[in-house]
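Format notes (please read before filing issues)

Several people have asked whether sequences and structure tokens are stored in separate files. They are not. Every record keeps both together, in the order shown below: the sequence lines, then the token lines. Line labels are part of the format and must not be stripped during preprocessing.
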Amino acid sequence: MENRGFDFRIAMQNRTKQFALRIIKLYQALPKTGEAQLIGNQLFRAGTAVGSNYRAACRARSSKEFFSKLSIVIEEADETMFWLELLGESEIIKTSLLQDLLNETEEILKIFVTARKTMNQSKNN
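Then the structure lines:
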């Protein structure tokens, strides 16, 4: 059972790193207009923070610290979703081109929200 948790951590570290790389590539492809670059900077910061904060959570010294850092991961993923939606809805980038990344953001968000809820429930039992 312990190995399964370790495998999950490694898989999610890899997945969130790949996610960050996709965010970087999107940022590089953004138009060089002022508004695209401003939104892009925010997207870049939030999207890459998902992976870096998850790595930090995995090295937490206590379950409280893990829970806190996991909450930051969720916050950054949600913010990433906001900036992606804004890029599409402002028509800086066609929403259809963002759909894959929006789906991945939502999946990552759901995984971490579920993990946090599970932690909360086991803490309360």
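For reference, the curators noted about this record: The chain has a mean pLDDT of 94. Residues 2-124 form a domain with the de novo design (two linked rop proteins) fold (CATH 1.20.1440.60).
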